[in-house]
Amino acid sequence: MTPRLYVLPGSHPCAAVEAALRLKSIDFDRVDLLPLSQMLVGPLRYGGTTVPGMRLDGERIVGSRQILRRLDALVAEPALLPAPGDPAHAKVLEAERWGDEVLQSVPRRIIDVAFLRHPAAMESYVGDAKLPLPLGLMRPALPLTARMMAIKNSAREESARADLAALPGQLDRIDAWIAEGLLGGERPNAADLQIGSTIRLLMSIGDVRPLIEGRPAAELTRYFPPMAGEVPAGVLPAEWLPAPAGA
Ligand SMILES: N[C@@H](CCC(=O)N[C@@H](CS)C(=O)NCC(=O)O)C(=O)O
After folding, report:
1. Residue nearest to atom 6 of ligand 1 (CA)
2. Are 75 and 118 in contact (CB under 8 A)?
3. First-residue to last-residue Cα distance in the chain
4. Which residue has its alpha carbon closest to ligand 1 atom 13?
5. Each residue's pLDDT tens digit, 96-146
6. 8 Å CB contact between 193 and 99
7. pLDDT at 243
8. Which class for 148: exposed (0-12), middle (13-18), buried (19 or more C-beta within 10 A)?
9. Closest among 182, 157, 244, 176 to 207, alpha carbons compared
10. Are the C-beta atoms of 156 and 150 separated by less than 8 Å?
11. How far is the CA of 12 from the centre of ligand 1 (A)?
12. What is the rounded CA–CA span in Å between residue 111 and residue 153?
């Protein structure tokens, strides 16, 4: 049976799962949800309140890492993890965990604050999503949606400033993994997809892009199609931004 993937437009863990499905040439149906509607729809359809969620026959799977493990069991090649006997296996799993539990929330909190300052930018992230409502009807609700998303993700000006200050150190860590050969191979592993999708979303924020451009970490976006969505430069105050590497 064709897997059904539940996503939100612009969601980076959803992009990671989509890339894995394409890599393994697994046909799938994508269901695009409206922001926050996953809290109502998710429990019934795929058993959770966050996206990505997947329905595979009667099976319900929630979470990007859980879905990637299930996809490896479903279609073994190309594998998203090194073989269990390989010393790189545990390292890739640890990089993937860090990408999910630590890095994944960083663009979420920064972009939520950017959307509060410039709600019109949210519209650009819809991309090719087939949403149940026309954009014209959703437009008046964007400022309220931005406020509710910021509350849900505990995104405030102070958190965005702290995330921006911590970002260069996190990028150094990713660049070191690439130098070690753990990330950035010809074919992506699970950690490349988890971290690369987050870098791709960060680079859609015009003020954040110069912090990443030119670094090895920026190359992890090549595993994905071009990102729909852009927060124009100038939305975040210049004094919140650390200097780009080498500046
Ligand atoms: N870390 C989990 C959670 C993903 C997650 O929080 N997704 C966001 C979208 S990027 C979401 O569903 N947010 C809505 C909410 O938390 O209600 C994963 O990788 O699957």
Report:
1. 50
2. no
3. 52
4. 50
5. 999 999 999 999 999 999 999 999 999 999 998 999 888 888 899 999 999
6. no
7. 86
8. middle
9. 244
10. yes
11. 9
12. 10
Element (H, E) at 5: strand 4-7
Residue type at 224 in one-letter notation: F
Find, among 95, 67, 90, 77, the residue nearest to 6 by Cα. 67
Span from the CA of 45 to the centroid of ligand 1 (angstroms): 16
Say yes or no: CB of residue 152 within 6 Å of ligand 1.
Answer: yes
Does residue 8 line the site of ligand 1, with CB under 6 A? yes
Cα radius of gyration (the chain): 18
Return the DSSP state at 33: P
CA distance 194 to 13: 7
Q: Which residues of the chain have pLDDT under 70?
A: none
Give residue 36's pLDDT.
Answer: 84
Look at residue 8 in the predicted model and tell me its pLDDT.
95
**What pLDDT score was predicted for residue 38?**
87
* CA–CA separation, 241 and 177 (whole Å): 24
What pTM was computed for the model? 0.96
Q: Is the CB of 106 inside a 6 Å radius of any atom of ligand 1?
A: no
Cα(121)–Cα(207) distance, integer angstroms: 13
Residue 91, C-beta contacts closer than 8 angstroms, at least 6 positions apart:
182
